[in-house]
Queue: 4 jobs
Job 1
Amino acid sequence: MKIKLQLSQIITNALLIANIQADEIVISDASKPEFGDYQFNGMMKLAKELKQNPREIAVMVCSHIDITGMVAKVEVAGPGFINIWLNDAWLATQANAILEDKRVGVGYVEQPQKVVVDYSGPNMAKQMHVGHLRSSIIGDTLATLLEFLGDEVIRQNHIGDWGTQFGMLIAYLEEQNTDGNTQELKDLEQFYKDAKVRFDESEAFANKAREYVVKIQGGDEHCLMLWQSFINASLGHCEEVYEKLNVNLTRNDVRAESFYNDQLAQVIETLKSKGISTTSNGAECVFIDGAEIPIVVQKSDGGFLYATTDLAALNFRDKVLNADRICYVVDARQAQHFKQVFSIAKQADMVGAEVSLEHIGFGTMMDKSGKPFKTRDGGTVKLVELLDEAVVRAKETIKDRDVHSNEELDAVAKAIGIGAVKYADLSISRESNYIFSWDKMLSFEGNTALYMQYAYARIQSILRKHDAQIFGDIVIGDELEHRLALMLLKFEDTLTKAAIEATPHTITGYLYDLVTLFMKFYEQNPILKGGIEEEVKMSRLQLAKLTASVIAKGLELLGIKVVDKI
């Protein structure tokens, strides 16, 4: 239900009748219920153009607003704000229309795009750690959301599987006489440390490792076989994490650094032919206006860099995948890198001028002291271990509630624990750093997954207690029911905003406001209490049922499973 769009059209019509032209109509949510449901505050700009008093213009526009259908009342406030109240009957009709809709009233985008979302991107030399959490879940949420709204989404997992470290790793793999599927690779972190010790202690081994790097790059069959077995084992670790996280990345989505290796020389040739790069001290560089240090795309020894691979990837995503929008869900500290790479790609026509290139940056997960999240000995926290701990802690949180069998408890603990980790991350503005806190994320209070889960489970309990068919329509009887129905109908506008701005916290913020409002509604408007008229009871049951559907769909888009009982 694109309410803001409909209101914009109503305001536009009123302006046209009043012989006033406006380039853009911006409708915003009213800050308080007493100010209406929505506001139009574009009078100051119009007043400057028309050289008239903004309040007088607002009064004139209000006189032409149609209040026979969607709009119940309009009112001029302050220097020229137009406060808008929606009609109860109209709200009820719209809410009733989506009661049995699996999409809960959310339509599809009018002009679908082909969108590439690059996210997760682990290094195959090591197991995934907490630093990969944000990219994986923010990227997956964005991809899922865009798909739901009707875009064609191409997930791309740009894994790090190339470079000098792999010569060392496959040499050690060979020395251990393993095929990449045995216990030696169960702990990739330890395997890497052991290989590094061997590299540092043995000059013969170090020379062999360097030789194997050259052989990998040259296509040596034996070395490539060892390399592929290592990559397969490493991807297996990643897939274990993705399964736990309920993240939709598969082997088919992997587009590794090695995939672009054969295209890197052409990138350099393109930059040279267009006069974009310059040879400096034997290296090929691109000098960008305003930047003190050039972007090196080829070292003096002929080696390539991350920027070169990123340019090849951009060219592939434009020319082969035919993307309209390319989103990189990568740490905010890489902002300058992507700004420069995007600029070069556009200059070199590796990406068309009409293609949107976006760096979806995010902040760092911190511990309670405000420092990057580490283990007690200062090492990186393995993501799989963090997720396993989340499930254990969730089980401790709910085990005394006596509503689950042992089998149910395990399943519910998994849904709640993983959901808590994801929601805590997604509820923060992605550009911000945030403090990781078990106590906060597993709390039944505040903007947490558990608060959402509890609200959903509570509604399911109400529906189970009713234990009969729910029939009849939603009929709005008071201010709380008006606000709840309106909030439910705002879901589509919320998702649209989150998709355009790539802001998952827009969805979590909406869910928190919805659940908080429902709890007030539930406390003040009894549903199953005796003595309530049947029509009122059914209306409130329908509102509760629709609320549960929206909560479930919102959490589903965030990759979080709901539970019927907590």
Job 2
Amino acid sequence: MRYPTIVGLMMALALLAGALPAQAQGGSPAVMDEGNNIYLVDGAKGPIPNLLPAEEVHKIRELVFSTPGSLHRVVSPVSPDDQAVLVKSRTTDFLNVNDGSTVRFNADPGWQPLSNYFWLDSDTIAQYAVYAGDESSMPYLLTGDRRSGASDATPVGLEAGFPVLVSPNGRRVLYATLPAETQSAARASAIAELAQAFDPLAQGGIGAIMLFSNLVVRDRETGESRPVATLTPGTRVEHAAFSQDGSMFALTAQLFPTDTRKPYDGALFSDLFYRDATGNLPPAENPFFSNNQLISFDFGSGQAQTLRALDGDGVVYSSVSWSSDNQTLLVKVDQPGRVVGRRYPQYNPQYRAGSSIRFYNRGLQEIRRLERIELSDIELEAAFLSPDEVLIQSQYRLDRRPWYYNLRSGELRDLAGSAGSYRNVTPTNSSRQLIFSYSSVSEAPDYYRMSWDGGALKRLTWANAALTERTNIKQQPLSFTLRDGTTHTGVLVMPGDAPFPPKNLPIVVYQEGGPTGPIKNQWYASVESPFSLLPSFGFGLLIVPLYGRYGIGPERFDGLVDGTNFGQIDIDAQAEIVAQLRARGWANKVGIVGCSYGGYFVNQSITRHPSTYDAAHAQCSLIDLFTEWSRGYPALAPWFEGLPPQAALEEYRRDSPAYNAGRVRTPLLAFHGTDDFLPVTVMENYMLQVINNQVPARLLKFQGAGHGVNVNGDGVIGRYAADYEVYGAQEQITWFRTYLMGQ
């Protein structure tokens, strides 16, 4: 996605937290008043002042630097004896799945993964890796002892290519080779890309082999090799998986178009990304579809079989899993976007509308489909537990849930016992248990175990139990039926001592960045996504996924941009929900907050509904679709609007808060990085109009920050990221206290 969430960057912030000095009280040159209620926050100028009492600052720091639920992860299969698994949060540890004890895995952080983790025996885990900065890009077998945590590395040579995937039993390895003419610089780039793209959480999470050509499967015990496929350079392997014993292998791949233009150089009519987003690219000419293929390979016979998406019914082959008896292949297929008013479907992965599951026999003949709205998440993961039983992990509404499916009986069972996010759900080998990380907006992450049927739940770790207790917040599921007959579900996060239903609770409504992607019920407490932050300071936080989100079905996803819906349908739905909050007596003061697309949502809401909200906080905001069209991502404004500005001037103007600043009446706090790819000058001009109209408003520009206060212009953790997060949270809390609580 163009506008990513900030979750993946919070781990480094957490590690920085303990090293930060206490901030100075009072004035500071680090916050410079530039006039007109515009301020420059610059960590290089000195300590940034605190706005709140010391005990509240301490609480903010504890929350902001707690580990987000998405970064509390199970990263390996369970050991062959069903005793241990590798987990990662702030450190990487061997977790005993019976008693919850841990042993630190002491591998050098310079190792970059080439392959998934696998077990050599019940005590020794392994992974192929390269060492950062090694010009030879020599692959090593990196091993770890679960008893001591000690690591070792053995070079394996380049004769067979680069090992990129290993079968669950550790016997078969997929190797990728580079074309012989590949230059050393391109070779190093390819290896770096592979190491960066590989997802160790999924057995087949390769994600990219852009410059590799030949794929070969090799037996680690006998040295026997079998060629699988020769790929055209530029082909992207989306997913690959071995069967349990390594005798069967499958992958999905497509030739991915290369964008040779400068980043953020605007839309171009002839560009493939633009033509796909606007529905002007026939499927037979669409590389996101026409080059997509599914390849199945039998190591014993050396035979490969292929299904091409172009020969199917319009879906894209996405991910794969073999049954434990090697007889059935599970394939996740992605549904293209089918936006009303556009001639052809949208196949760019960012704009695919949903997913479903299909089952094939060894001859690649389809034998069953599983199509349910609960399983329509584009990020769905599914893998066989046995010849007939399947574990599915899917986002449904706000929750990421595990599901049990029986291929023989057709039973589909929700295994989640609580609202929240069950992540990296990993089966044991013979004890029919599932190991996973769990968190929610009201519960900090820890590791758990339960049986395949969802029973016998056991908490394995208590690392964050005290934080959950100190935070003392709770959540309440809600639903709202609107005038058009649609029903939207969400969650209200509240202070632990607030009654339900609440009575005149100050409530802030939240929208995620993106807009594509789900909104996840998980522990997170940054200023950009204050799920667990604002409720800890007395506010209610209402989170409702509306349109353009996964987990609520393809129709709701496409609905954001159907016809001329963009800039209206989700904005108006949220305003109607707020009216219901007031009518029920739950809130007499309502705020709104969001970052990136969420920032757009805030600003569009207060221009389109100027009397609905009592306070607003917009961060890293897209506000000008004309600028986005001409100087932004080539496929975003085209997907939003479906037409170029020349053909829809009034629609672009109406959907751009920058040209409607005169309608703003809501007190507005705004954050923007000076190095954000969304131009800070555009935001500053918008805010000057709001301020000059005598609306209470403040713009804080964060020096050196990019798209979010905790990153720089390159999207990596900024030097003053931790300071900016803590100060930004204080500004946010103070703003909402002023206008929602009257303090």
Job 3
Amino acid sequence: MEEPRRSADRDLEQARAAIERGEMSHAADHLAGAIAHAPTLPETHELLSHLAARSGGALELFPLEHNAFVGTVVARAHLLAAAGRPEDGLPLLFAASGHTPGVNWAGVPWVTEPSLGVKVEPGLLARNVMQLCTVIGDPDAEAARSVLRPYLTVVRHAIAAHPEHALLLGAGSALARRVGEPETAVDWAQRGARARPSKLAEIWLGYAYRSAGRIGEALAALRRAVTHDPEDLSVYADIAATLADAGRMEDALSWVERALAKDPSFDCAVHTAHRLRFRADGKLAHLVDLADFAADNPDDTHEHTDLAECCAGTPWLGGVPEAARGTDDPRRRAPSTEQPSTASVERLLRVARPAWPHPPAAYDAALGLVLVTGEQLLALLAHPPGDDEYARRAARVWACLGLLHHDTDEPWMVSTRRRRLVELAVGGTDAVTEAAMFALIAYAWVDPAARTDVAGLITGRLMNLAGPARRNRPPIAWSIAQLALATPDLREETREIAEAVAQTEEARSRPRIPRQRTRKPKRVRRQLLRWLTR
């Protein structure tokens, strides 16, 4: 918070000096910068008023050009409000919030004046609210919700002036549930559905009921939406998701199947189907199929988060798990004696994070490491940056992911990248081992042709380090088992072994797993468990 204020103060100082010199354009530029850094700072608005008084309103100093700076747009909104045209300034604030959600662009007194709700055209306000809701999604944090409340106040005043405007009532309901006012959302959605029954009104009502925990009424509203338009398969997906959240998985899957029967390639139905199937039986194949579908259909109707939601908090699918008993073990010949350069370390740290949405996203995020030579990536693997073991393990993972983006013109089976990673994966029992194994697994997620090969490699490592014949497992046995569980096309009997190893090792050492998701346990053969617990 201190740095934006300091930046705003510097801009204000330069703006004052420019006004004194009569350089109004320069002053406007610095004021736009100050607003961008601290949009509700009183000193900024006072100086903006002073500039307007010296420049005949100053609107021409803040033009709406193509790709206009957000500070310029917001400054113009405030000047329009000061000139008695707040209804013209409000859409500019909506545009700023759509550009940079989470910033308090609307936290100024003129936005919450009751008179604005009377002046603004209700249809335009509704469309602005709908566009904003599409951009912001469903914010969880209170800070993200608080910056939206001034807009809700505008809607409240506008609804008081236009109590039967169905579109405004529905859009207002969508905004109300996003800022944590479910009862208001229900009230407005009910009124909108009564004023003008439609598919959209029933969808808004269904979402409002769902946010209020009134699941039965939510399902009834969404089913009425289907009767308005039986071909809108996105509503089928919404019904399925609502049923699944209510614990009615069989009914949920039946709605998904109905949608897929109408259009097997409809993106919302496909994403929902794979997510719910995974929730139902825990089989990784559903997530791999979903990743393949997303890769083959990059131009979906909107961004989907189903794969990321399923992978979140799961070891290796969603990030580097904390070690069971420590894996930063130096028992191997170092991959490189070379020290990484400062530039290589900086480039690695730009992407190296302990968590990722899913394995294909991790692979994609490592693309920038193609600018780091293979030798330097090996140096980073041998001498990873980081203040603790966990940070160094994450850095090693990203160094191995970077190796995947080198020599990509070579066929996988005879490629330098495969040879390097296999050598690293089998050359010890430490953090380098698991990093190389994850890189191989990530590549199997993005290249179906490599899956059989990678599954065989991972199976070999699992059986060698933690299989039934192994009496004393190394410290990374639990991590190796979790890596196997993240591997596409692993044979079912191998997956059962991996699950048993993970269960017994976790019970033995109680590793901490960041955001560990509760997995549905699978049945493991008793004989197998006896082998593994000898």
Job 4
Amino acid sequence: MVVETIQKNIRQFPTQLILVIIGALLFLPFLNQVHLFDLDEINFAESAREMLLTHNFRMVQINFQPFYEKPPLFIWLQALSMTYFGVNEFAARLPNAICGIVTLLVVFNVGRYVFKSQLGVLWAMMFCCSILPHIYFKSGIIDPIFNLFIFLGVFFLFKLSVQNDFENFKIQKRNRRWNLVLSALFIGLATLTKGPVAILLSVLTASTYFFVNRGKLKIELSEMILWWVIVAAVVILWLSFAIHANGLKFVDEFITYQIRSFASNNNGSWFFYHPFLLLIGVFPASALIYDAFKRNANDDTTQVYFKRWMIYLLCVVLIVFSVLKTKIVHYSSLCYFPITFLAAYYLNYLFDGKMKWTWRQTVPLLTLGVLITVAFTGGIFLIQRPDVFVNYVKDDFVKEILKAKVYWSNYDIRFGIAYLVCLIVSILLMQTKHVKWGAYILIICSALFISTVITLVVPRVEKYSQAALIEFLESKADESCRIETEGFKSYAHYFYAKKPCSAFADTAKPLYVITKCTNVEVAKPHHSKLVELYRKNGWVFFKGEN
């Protein structure tokens, strides 16, 4: 048995090596092409920088004060990366790029384990060519690693739910124990990455499976208890370090924040925000999943159960974050796993001739594709002509940032047009039964289109949003001074001005104040003797008189 497993892994090595190369080519280049974005990317990178400066790895800090909102695992990874590659954008985003490569290998091996290698490859490719999953692996936010840990925790719960009755009892018992331990360990690590929502989502998914399938989740009470003990042990191990550093106040503040984040209403409350976001953001995978929900006589029992787990995971995440009042893009990012799986599942059977290409794939693929390319080309066309729409903009700050000098060309539109042409060609090929060629064109062109947008468009967008702010901060990085923001929340002045540990206590240093053009009258009363230095792209920079 062991020999067969080794031989099977050796046969799959070339495929996995190719996936590593593809992931490296897509996710590693240009990580430092744009500055980190406020708030989240800079928040986490700054916390990692402060860890290195203070040598306090027991808990997360921001502005050298305890930061109770996030556990430390992702910050540890960033700090480790910065130790070797320096405090910069590349190091801050590298953990997620590596996570992207690991994710491709994970979904390939899970797909191969439950179905076959073809589905595993298609699943990995769906991650590469779908918009938000691809972009997130080139970011410096927590969610890619958080989601991978939860997925692995749920996967090993799935393995517990499908018991091989023909397996030797001792081997079966050993495998169950390993699956239980690995599931709990990964959920514990997910909790150390972002918080107890990892436990909530995994438990709700398992509970949904249990109730919908009439108690067929084959986990004994003793195993459930052991699962909770392992998860708790991982979390308590971290908490013991945090409590040692800051006392029990940390636990109280951490729990208070978790409750508040679930109840807050700062980002709108449209119930269908996340379904709509996923429909657009996980394109083209989201356009291919309709027939995957149907019962399929070609699936064996294990495959049926795995598909159910993925569907339940998708539904749980959607319902939980749709019910919550807080609406943030990455909250539903765990759905990328089940959505890309369902797309790969459909393509797998389409390749084998056991499913058909119908209007149920053509219509959403073409409709969403046209919508995305029109938004891309129309956005480029309009941004070059702000006079056309600036009078409809009510925010004076937005009006000012639109005055930024950014080079755009009508030739940039050709990327959107080329992608739409490739999309139409792929649909025509799949309709004429050249399904593999059509799918390959769709995957390759989608991945290249996303890479093009990241490389060409995102740096230009940054010039509107935060380039003037960060330019000023970087100019003060070597100056012994204090920098404050007024009227807006930001972590950029900590990271890009390289704030030292003692800066907050030294009031003798020169003071700079940054605000938006819409907040100037609010900022002045809070600071006496301010002298305006200059304004740029909606940002206003002051210096305090001595």
